[in-house]
Amino acid sequence: MASNEKKIVPLEFEQPLAVLAQQIEALERQLGDNPDLEGDIDRLQEQYNLLKKSLYVNLRPIDHLAIARHSQRPYSRDYFSLWDPQFIELHGDRKGADDAAMVGGLLNLGGIKMVAVGTQKGRSIKEKQACNFGMPQPEGYRKALRLFKHADKYGLPILTLIDTPGAYPGLSAEEHNQAQAIAENLFELAGLRVPVVAVVTGEGGSGGALAIGVANRILMLEHSVYSVISPEGCASILWRSNDKVPDACQAMKMTAREILQLGVIDEVIDEPLGGAHHDHQLAARNLGEAIVRQMKSLLQMGKDEIRIDRQSKFRAFGAFAEN
Fold first, then answer.
1. Which long-range contacts link 180-183 to residues 24+ away (Cβ below 8 Å)?
2. Between the CA of residue 256 and those of 223, 264, 271, what are the distances in Å?
3. Helix (H) or strand (E) holding 315
4. What digits encode the pLDDT tens for the residues 47-105?
5. Which terminal CB of the chain, N or C, has fewer other CB atoms within 10 Å?
6. Reported pTM
């Protein structure tokens, strides 16, 4: 177990685990010359396992955020290729450009043929720059909208994977009507007559996430976060201090379990111990099973029933009862 951990970049709160892993590794290198070390290795391994379980049972919101942003976490293309090696990617918005921050195409998951759309962050510096660090431009949202309409035309259910800090806020995006692109997606998604399942796999940031998140069923991975603004943005507005980011994470109720309690999402999907980046295959299997289950349930509805279900879901947000 420890040898697998060495391949994962540890987060700040995971440093005690990293220290134990290094000690185990050092003893394992000496094991050939001193077989008596095997008992020490076993004891350290037991300490490692107990500490690991304890750490992930008592995570703070800021720790969930760190895991959601981990650079080795699986992204949309990773999930699509693990679910369907024959995934067919479709490019371009047919109006001017192909935004690499938005990936979409034809997917077969669990025997269900669907249109899949997701944000993409990229791993290498070159990929991150090409994907604009997961912040789609208007062309990306128009690409997604083209695929949504394609799905509606041919009666294909829609899956969206959300992992973005938000829509790109730069000058070029504003020049190309970012707000209009997002608004059109919200409007069109609300009226589709095919099932839509959205999953927050990492960060779900502001309107950039909501633009592909108007769905019949909304799922979140265990360590993902969903919020109207980043914690850094919230801290800068409310306290004018970056030191207050942990307080902002606590106050915003942005973790998956908290949002489930608020009734905004429908299901939280368990991740491998430590986060999805520790086992892409297991994370994809857990998530895929949940998506198929939700899709099969939605496919039992009629077209108008599906549309009404989605609209009713969002109209109910924020409702309250007087005692």
1. 180/138, 181/138, 181/141, 181/142, 181/145, 181/211, 182/141, 182/207, 182/208, 182/210, 182/211
2. 7, 10, 12
3. helix 303-315
4. 888 888 888 888 999 999 999 999 999 999 999 999 999 999 999 988 888 999 999 99
5. C
6. 0.90
